Amino acid sequence: MKIPYYPGCSLKTTAQNFEISALAVAKTLGIELIELPRWNCCGTVSSLTSDDLMHHLAPIRNLVRAEEMSENLGGDEYKLVTLCSMCFNVLKRSNLRVKENPDELKKINDFMYLEKDYSGRVEVIHFLELLREIGFQKVKEKVKNPLSGLKVAPYYGCLLLRPKEIGIDDPEDPTVQVEILAALGAEIVNNPFKTRCCGSYQTVQDKYAVAELAYDILSRAQKEGAEFVTTCCPLCMFNLADRQKEVVEKYPEFRSIPVLYITQLMAVAFDLDEKYYGFDLNYVDPRPILKEKGVIR
Amino acid sequence: MAELELIGGYPAYMRESIKLVEKTRSRRIGKLPPQMTPQEREEILNLCHPDYAPGGKRAIKVGPNAGDIAPNEVVDLLEAYPLIEPNQIDLSRIDYEIDVLIIGGGLAGTSAALLANDSGIPANKILLTNKLRHGDANSMMAQGGTQAADRPNDSPVIHYIDALGGGHFANKPDVLRALVEDAPTVIKWLEELGALFDKDADGNFVELTGGGTSRRRMHACADYTGMEELRVLRDEFRNREIPVLEFYPAIELLTDEENKVVGAILWNMETEEYKVVKSKATILATGGFGRLHIRGFPTTNHYGATCDGVVLAYRAGAKLRDVDTVQYHPTGAAYPQQIIGLLLTEKLRTSGAQPVNKDGEEFVFPLEPRDVESSAFIRECYIRNKGITTPTGMKGIWLDTPLIDIINGEGCTEKSFPAMVRMFKRFGIDMVKDPVLVFPTLHYQNGGVETDPQGRTNIEGLFVAGEVSGGVHGKNRLMGNSTLDCMVFGRRAGIYSAEYVRKGVKIGKPSLKHVEKYLKMLKDAGINTERRSPILLPDYRGKAVLARMIDIF
Amino acid sequence: MAEKKISVMDKIREAGKSITSGVAEEDIKYWVTIHIMGKAYRVPADLTIMQAIEYAGYRLIRSCGCRAGFCGACSTVFRRKGEYKLQTAMACQTRVEDGMFLVQIPFSPAEKPLYDVKNEELESSVILKYFPEVARCVSCNTCTKACPQDLEVMDYVQAALRGDFKAIADGSFECIQCGLCAIRCPAEIVQYHMAQFARRMYGIYGTPREKNVEKRVEEIKSGKFDKEFQRVMSLSLAELKRIYTEQQNTREVY
């Protein structure tokens, strides 16, 4: 199965480990994620604006590319898969806006007269939705190295779940990561703060405010017995993992806890080559605990 | 032309000639006419080269080179009155008191600034002044490459002999040696600063030959070599916060009682205000003289190439060298009218393009030295009458550019000559499919203010670098040696002017006494003229408007 | 023979007259009207915008540099008669059209940030450090439309966000720094300054150092060629001519 894939800027820079593990995991499941040609930055926060159309050019231009790519691949499915939750949120919301407002779509198409018109056929989905579509049974079948004994607390953050119109799961009590982790053989730890905001872009303004939020989320997870936290968003990753430095400054007794992309754990469970784990880019190295638990050598 | 119908950019009658070129193409591929013997070269120069045709030059009447021959347009500037009266200038107020003044910011001037800074002159004691913007220079337009003998089968000695022969053995030996020995260092320096030279998959420089060059040693950045080199050096210059002025040409040098050069008068082109710069060392890097349109030829040069530096230095008593020779580049664009004279790099010929006449016949080895090649084109057009005449009356011969892709593979022209492809595309011509029309164009000032290996002139305190200097190239410059000259001697002028300053030079009161002396020389020689120099910019205003113009405001 | 030579030179001078000394009215058959900063002027139909401005009597000081399309001095913005679209071009490389409504932009107000390339790393964060506005790019493509060199400017700005220095270098290599992209950009990015920085960084950190030239520099420094130079520089003119001819005959095939 070939599907157009939108990486987003972080996946090419700070979150290369997310991409390398996800692409390998997808391949194992028989999915080829093909990178969109000439994609541009989704625009992140500015593309969520509701009072001008200019900032929707960036996401819609990507959807034009996705539509073109799907046409070339043939078939009747027009999907675009993303890994980054922020990109997912932006692309899906812009897509929804122009589908619901045809006159705005026309304006955007007229402005981008050098491109093909976007007709609104693309469906933006997150990688987790794709896994759900394929079926968790299939995921389980590929597991060669069950993550037995690993206590993992999934974390969702905001952008995968809110607003309701685009969320991929129950906003209060999502379960998609639970089902994946169960298929991998891990022990699930429920963190009541799993849908709490990590602080998002406040991290560039006030890193200690983010550190407070991270402390709440992580220490609660630890209190529930978690040894790992998983996420699907490079920004959440940065706030929960890299900001542990500031957490320790404020709370010296805080013990560091590894935060991983769920696809990294999937790669380990599928027993893929080490080069697809990408652990060098994780702020807190998970390898000591993984080795201790006998999950990796 | 507005009334002629154009097919692919060319009128129908020129298309007929192109058909003949296409007919002979397959038999011409890879087969070149033989190189000329030294006697043949001598003959054709005497027959057709603009320098050799009588009526274009005369003897200079005044100054250090009195009696020497130079082109009329140059002598006109030397035998001309200054723009200012010495008593108009108040020299008591000094606007800038610095260590090194650099006049002209092309590759030479910018290199000089960087190396003076590297050699211990603090940034705020250097001043680079430009007539137009920093970067408006012939350097920015250089296309083909920079020579440096860095391959194992090559050596600086071989480079030396190539340049010496090309220069008709008139180059100053120790100066030429400095040029070729510093060349690899210059390339390495540029690479370390981040310049993007053409490299192959293994990371080696892609190097081609040029006219009169016996080895492959031309380092290029597509056909934007000068632009890439100058952009990088200028960026480095800006990062160091060295003071720079724009639209402030020098209109006279300043000398002290011992006739050392101690600075210059700068003039703001926009506000007409003058500034007095007192400087321990002055580096002249003012470039060439193409906009004098010697012998009525169009030129490849930029707007400000008006021989200013030679004039200023000559008034201060500097000796000139080899000013009797002018380099005409064989392949200047000849069609359409809008781009007449613009440079089409020699690299086109090195990549396989062949000159052919209106019947599609080859008539000369494509890579003779420039003076010989130019003469051959002139002979073909005006003596053998085998050139093509354009609708505006310009004559030229074809340069068969489609051969480049045929020989090197599809896409080569676009990849190696993006600037050329773009220029012709703007006027509706596809140089990959069709040949282009060329004719010699005024290109380079071979000689100038005489230099030594350290960039010094015969006037203390005055250094020189780049096209404005004389002695490096003899009577004729080879391709790729000009950008090299600018950087080698720009660097040296920077280094040695810094050394000169740091040794502790005492400079006297700045004056325009040398100008007064020069005025007297002109009067004594009976030179009565309205001419003033330096001219700063050429004048292309419409004649009709000029006839009705009055200066009242 | 002497007479022939003189007349050849005179003929050449005559042939190039239109470019060296301006167009003479008698030769013009076709005229157009253009508006320079709102003022109408009747000019010969086949001139470039730059030649037409000079024909109209303006002596250019700003907005004129190489006159060949390399230096970016003559940036011009214009509209065609009856069209709303804003066009950009270099005055020295663009023919006038009847009804053209134009102005020249001699300067793009964009200070360049100062950096020391020797102390930076090849990462996208470095670009954002000196050019944070790059993150404001909304992918509107206005810069690409403004570029007179037909570069895909937006693409290389986007490449900056991904840290793809090679793509920036390839995409911006032919940039003449005319400033039109920066003037038009709604996000107020100065594309050409960012590209210059990225190109230098790529040249320094993204490409391997060439080995031949390094070796040769060392050889010269160690005096490897001194003896050979001394020998050659002491030869007579006749001998020099001989070895030059020999050397030209052994030239590498190009």
What do you see in this structure?
The complex is a heterotrimer of chains A (297), B (553) and C (254). Chain A is of the alpha/beta class and 297 residues long. In chain A, 45% of the residues lie in helices and 10% in strands. Chain A has helices at residues 9-12, 16-28, 57-73, 85-100, 102-111, 127-134, 136-141, 176-184, 202-205, 207-223, 234-242, 244-250, 262-269, 287-292; strands at residues 2-6, 32-35, 79-82, 123-126, 151-154, 187-188, 228-231, 259-261. In chain A, strands 2-1-3-4 form a 4-stranded parallel sheet, sandwiched between helices. A 4-stranded parallel sheet of chain A has the order 6-5-7-8, with helices on both faces. In chain A, strand 5, helix 8 (176-184) and strand 6 (187-188) form a beta-alpha-beta unit. In chain A, helix 3 (57-73) crosses helix 4 (85-100). By secondary structure, chain B is α+β, with helices and mostly antiparallel strands. Helix content of chain B is 32%, strand content 17%. In chain B, strand 12 and strand 13 form a beta hairpin. The longest helix of chain B is centred in the last third of the chain and has 22 residues, at 481-502. Chain B is globular and about 70 Å long. Chain C is of the alpha+beta class and 254 residues long. Chain C folds into 3 domains: 27-104, Ubiquitin-like (UB roll), CATH 3.10.20; 117-206, Alpha-helical ferredoxin (Fumarate Reductase Iron-sulfur Protein, Chain B, domain 2), CATH 1.10.1060.10; 216-247, no CATH class. Chain C contains 12 helices and 5 strands. In chain C, helix 6 (153-162) crosses helix 9 and helix 7 crosses helix 9 (191-206). Chains B and C meet through helix 2, helix 5, helix 6, helix 7 and helix 10 of B and helix 1, helix 2, helix 3, helix 9 and helix 10 of C.
Write the layout of secondary structure elements.
The complex is a heterotrimer of chains A (297), B (553) and C (254).
Chain A: E1 2-6, H1 9-12, H2 16-28, E2 32-35, H3 57-73, E3 79-82, H4 85-100, H5 102-111, E4 123-126, H6 127-134, H7 136-141, E5 151-154, H8 176-184, E6 187-188, H9 202-205, H10 207-223, E7 228-231, H11 234-242, H12 244-250, E8 259-261, H13 262-269, H14 287-292
Chain B: E1 6-7, E2 10-11, H1 12-28, H2 38-48, E3 57-59, E4 69-71, H3 72-78, E5 96-103, H4 107-118, E6 126-129, E7 146-147, H5 156-166, H6 173-193, E8 207-208, E9 218-219, H7 225-239, E10 244-245, E11 250-255, E12 261-267, E13 274-284, H8 308-315, E14 320-321, E15 326-333, H9 347-350, E16 354-356, H10 370-383, E17 388-389, E18 395-400, H11 402-408, H12 412-416, H13 418-425, E19 436-445, E20 448-450, E21 462-464, E22 469-470, H14 481-502, H15 513-524, H16 543-547
Parallel strand pairs in B: 5-6, 5-13, 6-10, 13-21, 20-22
Antiparallel strand pairs in B: 1-2, 3-4, 7-9, 8-9, 11-12, 12-13, 14-20, 15-19, 16-18, 17-18, 18-19
Helix pairs in contact in B: 2-10, 4-7, 4-14, 5-6, 6-14
Chain C: H1 2-15, H2 17-20, E1 31-36, E2 39-44, H3 49-55, E3 75-79, E4 87-90, E5 101-104, H4 124-130, H5 142-146, H6 153-162, H7 165-172, H8 180-184, H9 191-206, H10 211-221, H11 226-233, H12 237-249
Parallel strand pairs in C: 1-5
Antiparallel strand pairs in C: 1-2, 3-4, 3-5
Helix pairs in contact in C: 6-7, 6-9, 7-9
